[in-house]
Each structure stands twice: as structure tokens, then as C-alpha cells.
């Protein structure tokens, strides 16, 4: 793998290192974040562009990444232009295996290891511990640099921050004091990119829907 | 899109005409790189004749601001049309790149 895509990076950040699984707090929005990450990567690669109303293809040339090209083709096949939020919702609900696909490619790339672990002596579950943890450290370092250096952020780091904010992984990376200190900067930078704002919007909607369902079951 | 420039000491003013989007953002980045290579650290984008800006266009301005700041200068914009101003406002872009009311205001903001 040449470099990690934003979808790969957000999955690495969402993994709970102690158990090798997606952090429970991120599960409901993991697909949304990956869908957003795929669109962001296509935007950075000059294949799609967006504005306040719609997301559109500017160059249909495949990028050489199976998942990205699949999504690029899907956007190209849609007869009418739709918004970024529409695409994030569509991709995350239609492609229910996004998390598994990213985990599998991270295993293939040698970034994660796949293990069968037992719990309660009987049940087994698949875990994905990191091989070296270097990729997670690098992604965290970039996020910290964006948040605590007063520099103009790089577009890729801006987009990664948008994903990290939407999935709430920042609360696992930063202490509560750091989170308080960085809150204004998080909002400032995460708002810069249109797809980042759309990921935040769809993630909020998903969390609200999950909360409503849980409340209904409780009552 | 057309982009022309006028150099005034270490300040360069770009006059942009048309759309700034994925198809044209490379021209903006090229002009910015040439300006920095030529010693200009402070940049003003005259946007009076820009009628559309997409995410890729906004990203090109962000990259310009990053490079100018790294070189010890900065970027300011002025003359935003209503639709373009809406894009800047929704993105909160004014917190990163000063949005000025005129050429003189842009120069003042970059000198501050």
C-alpha cells in the first residue's frame, strides 16, 4: 500500500487497541466515517468535487483502488447529482461491509493482524491488533499538530480531523483538558471542508436515530 | 477561469475571473507557487469577478494561505460575490483567510 487513505486512517483511529476491535462508541457511525473518507480521498485525488448543493464527478479515470473506484463508478452511474450528505448516507447504508473491507485491506497491507480470540471460554471473536502501531501514532500526531499549532491546516489533515470529530475518536486521543482547550479549533478546522461537514451531519443523524431506538426499547 | 497578477514589492495581487473549481484550481496553485518562488509572501485575491467556487477551489485558497504563511506572509481576499461569500461563510473560512471589503482593506489586513 502506497499510503493510507483517509478511510483506512479513520478505521485505525477507531480501533480500540486493548481489544483490537472498533471502539463501541464509534460502531454506529463507522460506516458513515468510512463512506466520508472514501469521498474525501476521491476529492483529494481530483476525481470528484462538491459545493453547498451537490457532489459531482470531474474526472472518471479510475484511481487504482478497488473500493474508491467502485464508489467513483457508482457516483458516475447516478443519473442526477446529489449532495455529499446524500452520498454518505447512501454509501454507508448500501455498503454494509465497509468496516470489514477496510479491516481486511489493512491486514493485507501488514498494518493489522487478524486473530481469533476466545471469551467466556466458549465464544470466539475476531480481533485486529496493530502490528506496530506506527500508522495510528502518525495519524494522531498529525491531528495534534493541527489542533495545537497555529498553522494553516493541510487539506488532508483538515479532512481527517472532520472524520475524527464525527466519530468522537478525539475524546480517546485527547485528555478532557486538552479537548476543552482545543474545542474552538476543532470546530474551526472541521468546518472548512464541505464533505467533512456532511459527515458530521450524517453522523449526528445516525447517533440520534440510535438513541431514539434505544429510548423506545427502554420505555 | 483567468488569473492575472500584479506585483507590488513583496505583495502580489491576483485578479481571478470565472469559476474556481476542480478544473481550474491547479491554475491557482501554479500561480501561487510561482509567486512564492518569485519572493512574494503576501497575496491578495481580487474575487470581484469570481462567480463560483467549489470545495476544490476553496482548498486551493487554503493551500495558498498555508504556503504564504509558511513563507512568512499571508493571504487575504476581497470582492466576494454573494454566492461565493456564502461558501466562505458556511466554511468559516474568514477565521483562516481574512475577508476584506476592498483592495485597501485587504492590504491593511495583511499588514496588521
3D structure, described in words:
The complex is a heterodimer of chains A (219) and B (112). Chain A is built from ten helices and six strands. Chain A is mainly alpha-helical. By secondary structure, chain B is α/β, with parallel strands linked by helices. Chain B has a five-stranded mixed beta sheet. In chain B, helix 3 (82-90) links the parallel strand 4 and strand 5 (99-100). Chain B is globular, with a radius of gyration of 12 Å.
Question: Main attributes?
Answer:
heterodimer; A: 219 residues; two-stranded antiparallel sheet; B: 112 residues; alpha/beta; Transcription Regulator spoIIAA; five-stranded mixed β-sheet; 4 helices; globular
Task: Offer a concise description of the structure.
The complex is a heterodimer of chains A (219) and B (112). With 219 residues, chain A is mainly alpha-helical.
Indicate the topology.
The complex is a heterodimer of chains A (219) and B (112).
Chain A: H1 6-14, E1 15-16, E2 21-22, H2 27-44, E3 48-50, E4 55-57, H3 66-77, H4 84-94, H5 98-108, E5 115-119, E6 123-127, H6 134-148, H7 155-167, H8 170-173, H9 176-190, H10 194-218
Antiparallel strand pairs in A: 1-2, 3-4, 5-6
Helix pairs in contact in A: 1-2, 1-7, 2-3, 2-4, 2-7, 2-10, 4-10, 6-7, 7-10
Chain B: E1 2-8, E2 11-20, H1 25-37, E3 42-53, H2 55-70, E4 74-78, H3 82-90, E5 99-100, H4 103-111
Parallel strand pairs in B: 2-3, 3-4, 4-5
Antiparallel strand pairs in B: 1-2
Helix pairs in contact in B: 1-2
Annotated CATH homologous superfamily of chain B: STAS domain
The poorly predicted ranges of chain A are none
What CATH calls the topology of chain A is yeast vps74-n-term truncation variant fold
The number of distinct structural domains of chain B comes to 1
Amino acid at each position: 500500500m502506497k499510503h493510507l487513505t483517509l478511510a483506512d486512517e479513520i478505521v485505525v483511529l477507531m480501533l480500540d487497541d486493548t481489544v483490537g476491535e472498533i471502539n463501541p462508541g464509534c460502531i454506529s457511525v463507522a460506516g458513515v466515517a468510512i463512506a466520508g473518507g472514501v469521498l474525501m480521498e476521491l476529492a483529494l485525488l481530483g476525481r470528484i468535487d462538491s459545493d453547498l448543493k451537490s457532489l459531482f464527478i470531474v474526472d472518471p479515470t479510475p484511481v487504482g483502488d478497488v473500493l474508491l473506484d467502485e464508489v467513483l463508478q457508482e457516483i458516475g452511474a447516478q443519473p442526477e447529482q446529489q449532495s455529499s450528505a446524500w452520498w454518505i448516507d447512501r454509501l454507508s447504508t448500501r455498503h454494509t461491509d465497509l468496516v470489514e473491507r477496510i479491516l481486511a485491506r489493512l491486514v493485507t497491507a501488514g498494518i493489522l493482524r487478524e486473530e481469533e480470540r476466545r471469551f467466556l471460554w466458549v465464544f470466539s471473536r475476531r480481533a485486529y491488533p496493530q502490528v506496530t502501531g506506527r500508522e495510528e501514532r502518525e495519524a494522531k500526531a498529525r491531528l495534534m499538530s493541527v489542533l495545537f499549532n497555529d498553522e494553516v491546516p493541510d487539506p488532508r489533515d483538515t479532512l481527517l480531523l472532520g472524520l475524527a470529530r464525527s466519530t468522537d475518536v478525539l475524546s480517546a486521543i485527547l485528555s478532557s483538558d486538552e479537548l476543552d482547550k482545543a474545542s474552538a479549533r476543532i470546530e474551526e478546522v472541521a468546518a472548512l471542508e464541505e464533505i467533512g461537514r456532511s459527515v458530521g451531519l450524517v453522523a449526528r443523524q445516525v447517533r440520534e436515530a440510535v438513541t431514539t431506538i434505544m429510548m423506545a426499547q427502554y420505555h | 477561469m483567468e488569473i492575472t497578477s500584479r506585483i507590488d514589492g513583496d505583495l502580489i495581487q491576483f485578479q481571478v475571473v470565472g469559476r474556481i473549481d476542480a478544473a481550474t484550481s491547479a491554475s491557482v496553485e501554479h500561480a501561487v507557487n510561482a509567486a512564492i518562488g518569485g519572493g512574494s509572501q503576501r497575496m491578495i485575491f481580487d474575487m470581484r469577478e469570481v462567480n463560483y467556487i467549489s470545495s476544490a477551489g476553496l482548498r486551493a485558497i487554503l493551500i495558498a494561505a498555508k504556503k504564504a504563511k509558511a513563507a512568512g506572509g499571508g493571504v487575504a481576499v476581497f470582492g466576494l460575490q454573494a454566492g461565493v461569500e456564502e461558501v466562505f461563510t458556511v466554511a468559516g473560512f474568514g477565521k483562516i483567510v481574512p475577508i476584506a471589503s476592498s483592495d485597501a482593506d485587504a492590504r491593511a489586513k495583511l499588514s496588521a
